[in-house]
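for ur thesis appendix - Anti-sigma regulatory factor (Ser/Thr protein kinase). copy paste whatever u need, i formatted it the way the template wanted (i think)
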Amino acid sequence: MVSWGSLPQQVASARLWCWHGTKLSYDRAYPLIAVLSELHTNALRHTASGGPCGRVRMEMEGYRGMFWLAVTDDGALPGAVPTVPDLGAGFGLRLVDRLAAGWGWFGLPGHPITVWAVVDPRGGGSPVPAGEPAVPSRLEAPARLEVPAQRAAG
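the 3d part is after this line
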């Protein structure tokens, strides 16, 4: 896990962290970088992560050519009505929805929320031997959750 501060300029550093972590060419890693960038930017714009002393935590894991990433924010802005990730009218999560094989979120409104995505940088479905999951079972439904994972509409 890596943690970034509240400065918008740190999104560029996070993109480099993501790209180097994939060990892929930039062109191949671009869908994953774009998804991470959107989720990071959303955390800074819409949560306490973008405020003084805010932070954004990230995780990334590769499995069979696919990548799972998670971005966790600091919860709702003080005095703001708690919200949850939704496709809505914005562009960012629509882009995530188009580039990711799947995405969703978990947490409680008003508290830190983790938005996750699974991205296949190969651009299509990958062949997986019969009887084996496409992603590790811990990525499908992390056992540490007390709140059921919620899938975004789309």
